[in-house]
Amino acid sequence: MNKYNIILGSGSPRRYELLKLLFNNFEVKVSNTVEKYSSKKPENIVVELSELKSNSIKISNDKLLITADTIVVLNEKIIGKPNNFEDAFHMLKSLSGKKHEVFTGVTIRTLNKKRCFYEKTEVFFNNLTDSIIKFYLSTYEPFDKAGSYGIQDFGAVFINKIIGDYYNVMGLPISRLFFELQSF
Ligand SMILES: Cc1cn([C@H]2C[C@H](O)[C@@H](COP(=O)(O)OP(=O)(O)OP(=O)(O)O)O2)c(=O)[nH]c1=O
Question: pTM score, two decimals?
Answer without folding.
Answer: 0.94
